[in-house]
Amino acid sequence: MTDDDRTPRPAALGLAGLSAGFGIIGVSIGFATFLGITATASGGRDTAGFGPLAGSAASSFVLGVLLIVGAALLWRAHRAARVVIGVAVLLLAASSLARMVLDSISFLSVVGTVLSMLALVAMGSLLLSDGVRDHVREGVPLRLR
Predict the structure, then answer these.
(1) Biggest distance spanned by C-alpha atoms of the chain
(2) What are phi and psi of 107, to 5 degrees?
(3) What is the DSSP letter of 56?
């Protein structure tokens, strides 16, 4: 198969972009939250009251890294890409559901939850699409033209 004959994979490209974008956002939020905790907590020494916030920062960072790794694997058409992104989407869905149950209801929390769910539905549908499945099965990395 030549490059001219190759069918473009918009689903794989879209999923890789969403995964990388949300991963970068998650890593950024986790890192910024961690910096805020250490700057606020008595010069970085007394972080006892910031346990839940530290857990949230760590989970954002880890999920962000997981999504970035999944995007890179998908770009390279690695077989593990769908599993890595699928695990990240399931963890993000669980996080969104927990936020709906535990957070107090405000306009921002409702809008954030709705937008999170829409993004997760989009990622889940792309993950299960034939385009992504074919892309991984063929094993040909994505290319930008």
Answers:
(1) 62
(2) -60, -45
(3) H
pLDDT in tens, 16-59: 999 999 999 999 999 998 888 877 766 656 666 777 788 888 98
Q: pLDDT (tens digit, 9 = 90+) per residue, 79-138?
A: 999 999 999 999 988 888 887 787 777 777 788 788 888 989 999 999 999 999 999 999
CB 86 within 8 A of CB 66: no
Cβ atoms of 109 and 143 closer than 8 Å: no
HEC assignment per residue over 81-97: HHHHHHHHHHHHHHHHH
| pTM, two decimal places | 0.85
How many angstroms separate the CA atoms of 122 and 139, rounded? 23
Contact in structure between 53 and 123 (CB atoms under 8 Å):
no
Q: With contact defined as beta carbons under 8 Å apart, do 138 and 74 qualify?
A: no
Give dist(CA 23, CA 38) in Å, integer. 23
